[in-house]
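F.,

This is the one I mentioned.
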């Protein structure tokens, strides 16, 4: 896909605005209220300031157009926007792309796991226990909220909630298993991980650190001296 076709696609709130305006013309306050009414703020970051910026950007790109200005009672005037033919095409293409094509998403927990050896294993286990408690609390709150929402909304408007729950269940299972392996000593590499922190606490220099690990864990640390492949 050409770069020009994907310009401005970093913010899913813009896609949400386009989808709502494809239903009917709305002013930004109404867009915000509809998204909250449908519980979309759980999946799409939403605040009024960012919404106005998104609407302004879509208007400048001629994906939406101002239709009229309305005033309700003593409230300020509000501009009602409608989607343009170019906006309809962009909405269809953007949504189709997101549904069909997986992309790399840089999750913060994944980043933390990739840097986990920087902390000693005992501390990591303690932190994961705290995370697991928070995850389980989130699960309870999520299930309670979903039960209430299901009484008012059809599944069509809650399918992303099922996805979010599946991700949370998977993360809980992963965290539990990782904790079990750390506590039981089954985690592969736990001995060298522990030794790394013992050497750091002893004040070993980087040269001493590498030499000691190479001596004690020759096979495990071969990667330290492996030349990079072209």
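My design for it:
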């Amino acid at each position: 896909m050409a770069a020009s076709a994907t310009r401005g696609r970093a913010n899913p709130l813009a896609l949400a605005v386009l989808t709502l305006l494809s239903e009917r013309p709305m002013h930004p306050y109404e867009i915000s209220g509809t998204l909250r009414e449908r519980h979309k703020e759980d999946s799409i970051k939403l605040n009024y300031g960012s919404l106005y910026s998104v609407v302004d950007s879509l208007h400048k790109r001629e994906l939406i157009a101002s239709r009229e200005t309305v005033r309700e009672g003593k409230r300020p005037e509000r501009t009602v926007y409608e989607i343009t033919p170019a906006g309809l095409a962009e909405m269809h293409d953007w949504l189709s792309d997101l549904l069909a094509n997986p992309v790399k998403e840089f999750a913060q927990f994944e980043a933390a796991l990739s840097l986990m050896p920087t902390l000693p294993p005992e501390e990591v286990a303690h932190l994961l226990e705290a995370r697991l408690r928070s995850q389980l609390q989130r699960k309870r709150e999520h299930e309670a909220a979903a039960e209430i929402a299901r009484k008012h909304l059809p599944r069509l408007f809650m399918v992303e909630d099922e996805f979010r729950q599946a991700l949370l269940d998977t993360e809980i299972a992963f965290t539990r298993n990782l904790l079990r392996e750390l506590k039981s000593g089954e985690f592969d590499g736990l001995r060298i991980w522990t030794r790394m922190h013992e050497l750091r606490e002893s004040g070993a220099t980087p040269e001493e650190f590498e030499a000691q690990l190479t001596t004690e864990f020759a096979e495990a640390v071969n990667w330290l001296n492996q030349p990079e492949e072209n």
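Residues 121-150 form the longest helix (30 residues).

Talk soon.
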